[in-house]
Amino acid sequence: MTRKKRPGEYRAAQKSIRLTPRERGILQLLAEGESNKEVANRLGISVHTAETHRSNIMRKLELRSMNQLVRYAIREHIIEP
Question: How buried is residue 73: exposed, middle or buried, by Cβ count under 10 Å (0-12/13-18/19+)?
C-alpha cells in the first residue's frame, strides 16, 4: 500500500535548493531533535534568530509541523533515519 502524500510534501522536495547553507545547517540540527535554544547556543546566535530561521525554513518548504520537517530531512538525506 502506497502512502498518500500530504499537502506540501512534493513541493517541499522541489524547494530544497532554495534553502541557504545556514538554513540547511539549522534544519539538520532541528531534525536531529535540538531545540531553538540549543541551536542558538551551538551557533552563537540569539534564540529569536534561531526561531526566525526555523519559521523561514518551515514557510519555504510549506511544512506545518516538526514531524514533517524531520520526514523532509530524512527524505532529502540531511539526516539519517
Answer: buried
Q: State which amino acid sits at residue 64.
A: R
d(CA 4, CA 55): 25
* CATH domain 9-75 topology: Arc Repressor Mutant, subunit A (1.10.10)
Q: CB burial class (10 A; 0-12, 13-18, 19+) of residue 25?
A: middle
Q: With 90 as the cut, is the pLDDT of residue 1 above it?
A: no
Give the cell for residue 24: 540547511
Place of cell 540540527: 29
Q: Report pTM.
A: 0.78
C-alpha distances out from residue 46 to 8, 19, 23, 35, 53, Å: 29, 20, 15, 12, 11
